Amino acid sequence: MKQIDGLVIGSRQVLALFQEYTEGQDGMVFARPDAGRPNAGRPNAGPRGSAQGSASGTVQGLETVRDALDAYRPRQAVFLSPYRGMAADAARLVENGVDVRTAGPLPVRTRNLEIPITDIHRSEPGFRAMLEASRHADFGEPVYLRLISSPEGGQWQKWWCVFQSCRKAEVLMDSPLRRVYVAAAGTAPRLHISITLKTHRDSTGHLLVAPNGSRLQDDLFLVGTGGTLADDPLFNQPGMYGKSEYHMPIRPAGRCLASLWGNEALIALSADERRFYLDLLRAIGDSSRSRSGICLEYPAA
Questions:
Q1: Could you tell me the pLDDT band of residue 113, with boundaries at 50, 70 and 90?
Q2: DSSP β-ladder status, 2-9 and 72-79
Q3: Do 223 and 140 form a contact (C-beta atoms < 8 A)?
Q4: Which of 49, 52, 95, 217 is the most buried (most CB within 10 A)?
Q5: Reported pTM
Q6: pLDDT: is 97 or 253 the higher one?
Q7: Domain 125-251+270-297 belongs to what architecture?
Q8: How would CATH label the architecture of 2-115?
Q9: Backbone phi, psi, residue 172, to 5°
Q10: CA nearest to 162, candidates 177, 142, 148
Q11: How far apart (Å, rounded) are the C-alpha atoms in residues 171 and 131?
C-alpha cells in the first residue's frame, strides 16, 4: 500500500467545493462513495467531471472508496459525506492507526469507537468573514437566519446537511439552540426538509434542505438589529448605520482542507447531543412518512 498524507471522501458535489485546493496538492487522494459504479471495469478511471485526485495531486481520482482503501495508507482521512458502509470503513482506518474525522455524526455505532467530528464550515472563508462582520457593533444582535442548501444524496446526506446547518446557525446567532421543529416531505432524492429553530435568545432560524438540483447551495441570509448580511455582497445592507465606516465583506472563494484538521475545528458533542441528532434523523423519516411536523427539544448544556 502506498503511503499518502490524506484521504478525502465525499460526494462529487462536496469534493468540488475544494477543487481549487486540490490543484497541485501532493499526497492527497480524493474519492467518492460507490454510487452505481458508472465506470466499473475501468481501473483508475474516475467519472468524468468528478472532483477526485491522485497521490500526485492530479484531479483524476479513483473509482470507489474501496479502491482507495485497498491502494493507499493515509496518515489522515476525512469523510465529508455519509454513505452506507462508512462506519465500517472509518473503523478500519482507525484500527490501522489513521487519524480519522467526519463532517457529521455516524448514523450507526462503530465498534464502540468515537470518531471525532470536525466543523466543516471552518473551511469556508466566506463563513468566517460573515461571522466576523456579525460581531461588529453596527450589526447589532442577530435575530433571524435563513439558510438554504441543496446537497446530493438521500436521507443520510441531507441529515448531515441539517446537522452542519444547525451548527452554523448556533455560531452565527451566538446562542445555543433551544427547540427544533422538523417538517419533511418526499423521498430520496426528492426529499425536502424544513427546520425551524429557536435559540435561548429567542432568535429564529429557518433551515431549508432542498432536493438536489435546485442549485440553492448555501444561500445564507442573516438579520441583525442594525442590518443584514448575506453570502452575496450585493444584498448586504448596513441599515441605519449606513454612514458609518462599517463595510460588509465580499465573498471569498475557495475552501481549505487544512482548516478541518486543527483542534479548534473539533466538535465536542455530549452524549445527549448525539442522541438528539440521531432523534433528528428519525424525525426526518417519520415526518416524511406521516406528513406532519415533529418538535424536538435541544438538550440543555
A1: confident
A2: parallel
A3: no
A4: 52
A5: 0.83
A6: 97
A7: 2-Layer Sandwich (3.30)
A8: 3-Layer(aba) Sandwich (3.40)
A9: -65, -35
A10: 148
A11: 8
**Predicted pLDDT at 66:** 80
Residue 113 C-alpha cell reads as: 469507537
- 57 vs 299 pLDDT, higher one: 299
- DSSP-assigned beta bridge partners for residue 167: none
Tens of pLDDT along 23-42? 545 677 888 886 444 333 33
Return the C-alpha cell found at 55.
497521490
CB 39 within 8 A of CB 67: no
Task: Tell whether the model's pLDDT for residue 171 goes beyond 90.
Answer: yes
For the chain, give every domain's residue range: 2-115, 125-251+270-297
Residues 12-21: what's their mean pLDDT? 73
Q: Please choose, from the candidates 168, 150, 156, the residue with its C-alpha nearest in 3D space to the C-alpha of residue 214.
A: 150
- Residue 65 pLDDT greater than 90, yes or no: no
Residues ≥6 apart with Cβ < 8 Å to 152:
11, 12, 13, 14, 81, 189, 212
| Helix, strand, coil in percent for the chain, rounding step 5 | 30, 25, 45
Q: How far apart are CA 101 and CA 95, in angstroms?
A: 13
Residues 6 or more apart whose CB falls under 8 angstroms from that of 249 comprise 126, 129, 130, 132, 133, 233
Measured CA distances, 46 to 20, 33, 68, 247 (Å) = 18, 12, 12, 44
* Same fold flag, 2-115 and 125-251+270-297: no
